[in-house]
Amino acid sequence: QVQLVESGGGLVQAGGSLRLSCTASGDIFNIKTINWYRQPPGKQRELVATITNGGSTNLADSVKGRFTISRDNAKNTVYLQMNSLKLEDSAVYYCNIGVVYWGKGTLVTVSS
User: Fold this and answer.
1) What are the Cα distances from residue 46, in Å, to 58, 82, 96?
2) How many CB atoms are closer than 10 A to CB 53?
């Protein structure tokens, strides 16, 4: 079993920044890839960023140049640094490992 807890969401003005954190606990020995997804109101969940245990990253085109994903293996934590936030970045952001493991999400609201 793996538990994922997200934090760092909140209300921010357009153009501002937030840093989300995802801390993993439990049976994390074989964790390789950790993902950030987001689900805007009334829309489907979409993949935002991915990081492997080797540090390779991938970002959705919509966030490239603005978001950065990183991890601190010693703290079992993955971060999503979000800069130059836009209204359309408003969503619940979820941390994910594989098919089964999801956090409860953290809400990001970007205001004009």
Assistant:
1) 13, 16, 12
2) 12
User: Residue 108 forms beta bridges with which residues?
Assistant: 10, 91
Q: What is the mean pLDDT of each run of 10 residues along the chain (112 residues)?
A: 94 98 81 92 96 93 98 91 98 94 97 96
Long-range pairs of 71-76 with CB within 8 A, sequence gap ≥ 24: 71/34, 75/23, 76/23, 76/24, 76/25, 76/28
- Residue 100 has phi, psi (to 5 degrees) of -95, -40
Both tokens assigned to 84: 């130059």
Strand partners, 46: 38
**Residue 4 Rama label (left phi>0; alpha psi -120 to 50; beta):** beta
Rounded Cα distance, 77 and 68, in Å: 14
The secondary structure of residue 107, as a DSSP letter, is E
